[in-house]
């Protein structure tokens, strides 16, 4: 075998798995946001979910957007963006990292990991990733029409964090929707419907850090594509090296399964879409 051929033989690389780190992150976030409700997340007077941090607080980005749109000419409401600065900057840098590492609904759905699934969303042709932007736009418009953050009343994240036990009827059914949809496809709610994830993804459309594929090292085994819970890695990814910035939730499952050191985490090229 020539030296050039030897160089082309893919080399299996042993790397430290990041799964324990992800589990730890998700567990701590879940406990902080759900199980410690009395001192954790509160429904604040402005009507959106918020984490109090002394005299400061961190508010939900989509909740803030709805709050502003409920009365867009009220300049005082625009100041609420200060409290949404953390998720805003976080998403500009890291895209939907909240979805992969912190969201309690996402963590709950991950517990259904290997459940038997029947792709009923595909059969109903509802498995379109653009649906979630339509849902976000609809609730943004509804907020302006009704004068309050319309999605917050039925948001599963809020239901899990602040209102479990008190949800009834339609609210309870809608809050349970992500679990029902999980029986169709992994993270189906997050892929196709969640407006919170849609907004975080849209903000992170040009995110700075993320996952990319080194096409020189990739042997096209598709192990990463199979474990990706949001369909962020497609056939095109193996040609271009690009992983969808709007769909990737930074869970790093792909990094863990790639045996050829082809999955990279770092600064993304500026032209990447
Ligand atoms: S898409 Fe929505 S429900 Fe899913 S992890 Fe992100 S914020 Fe949570
Ligand atoms: S896991 Fe993905 S990136 Fe790694 S070699 Fe296989 S196809 Fe390529
Ligand atoms: S591309 Fe990798 S990091 Fe992004 S969602 Fe898929 S498996 Fe997770």
UniProtKB/TrEMBL annotation:
Pfam families recorded: Fer4, Fer4_5
Transcription regulation in keyword set: no
Domain of life per record: Archaea
Keywords, ordered alphabetically: 4Fe-4S, Electron transport, Iron, Iron-sulfur, Metal-binding, Transport
Span of domain 4Fe-4S ferredoxin-type: 209-238, 239-268
GO CC annotations on file: plasma membrane
InterPro entries, per database record: 4Fe4S_Fe-S-bd, 4Fe4S_Fe_S_CS, Electron_Trans/Redox
Coiled coil: none
Keyword Electron transport: yes
Molecular-function GO terms, alphabetical: 4 iron, 4 sulfur cluster binding; metal ion binding; oxidoreductase activity
Name of the protein: 4Fe-4S ferredoxin, iron-sulfur binding domain protein
Organism: Thermofilum pendens (strain DSM 2475 / Hrk 5)
């Amino acid at each position: 075998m020539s030296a050039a051929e030897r160089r082309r033989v893919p080399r299996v690389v042993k790397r430290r798995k990041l799964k324990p780190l992800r589990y730890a992150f998700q567990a701590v976030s879940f406990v902080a946001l759900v199980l410690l409700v009395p001192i954790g997340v509160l429904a604040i007077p402005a009507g959106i979910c918020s984490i109090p941090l002394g005299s400061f607080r961190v508010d939900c980005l989509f909740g803030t957007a709805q709050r502003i749109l409920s009365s867009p000419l009220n300049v005082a409401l625009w100041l609420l963006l200060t409290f949404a600065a953390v998720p805003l900057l976080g998403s500009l840098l890291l895209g939907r990292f909240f979805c992969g590492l912190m969201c309690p609904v996402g963590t709950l759905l991950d517990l259904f990991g290997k459940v038997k699934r029947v792709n009923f969303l595909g059969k109903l042709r509802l498995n379109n990733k653009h649906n979630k932007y339509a849902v976000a736009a609809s609730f943004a418009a509804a907020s302006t029409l009704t004068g309050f953050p319309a999605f917050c009343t039925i948001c599963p994240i809020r239901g899990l964090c602040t209102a479990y036990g008190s949800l009834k009827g339609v609210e309870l059914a809608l809050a349970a929707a992500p679990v029902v949809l999980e029986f169709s496809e992994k993270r189906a709610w997050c892929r196709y419907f969640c407006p919170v994830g849609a907004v975080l993804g849209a903000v992170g459309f040009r995110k700075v850090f993320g996952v990319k594929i080194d096409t020189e090292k990739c042997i096209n085994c598709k192990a990463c594509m199979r474990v990706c819970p949001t369909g962020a890695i497609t056939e095109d990814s193996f040609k271009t090296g690009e992983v969808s910035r709007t769909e990737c939730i930074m869970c790093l499952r792909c990094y863990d399964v790639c045996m050829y050191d082809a999955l990279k985490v770092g600064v993304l090229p500026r032209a990447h879409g």
